[in-house]
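sorry for the late reply, my laptop died twice this morning and i had to redo everyting from scratch. anyway the thing you sent over, i finally got around to it. pasting the sequence first so we're on the same page, its 147 residues, then the predicted structure underneath. double check i copied it right bc i was rushing
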Amino acid sequence: MVNAIELFGQLVLTILGFVVPILTLLISLLPEGTKFLISKYENERKQSEENIENETKKRATEKGLDYNALEKTLKTLKKKKSEAEAKLKYLNPTELLWRSSIPFIVAFVGVVVALLSTSLIEIAIALFGSFVASIAGLMTLFLSISV
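ok and here's the structure:
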């Protein structure tokens, strides 16, 4: 049991100490691609805002519209806007460093607590928290890579 916890801790440390800094450096070292993506998602966000504003004005001024279709369109535009804003956050190296490092730090603290605890319940809670935090960190890394 202790060996498994130590191996999990080493995995978390490896990801924290190797993958996260390299990913952050790659974003910092590739400014042309990052600038292109930032402008693309900024334009997408602005266009979505304009479309939302136009659809809202249309709803207020025109009579006899299909309000269900209009609500669906507004919902789609708001979703598109929030996706563009989320992608913009992943293109900021500082934001990416914090968003990907904090879950792995929490996971490592959970492993340390599990190794130092004597109660089986404390070990289980610490390992569960550590596992959840590491999954959240991995999801952040994969989402940033997909952007």
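The helical segments are 2-29, 31-61, 67-90, 93-116, 120-146.
thats about all i looked at so far, will dig more tmrw
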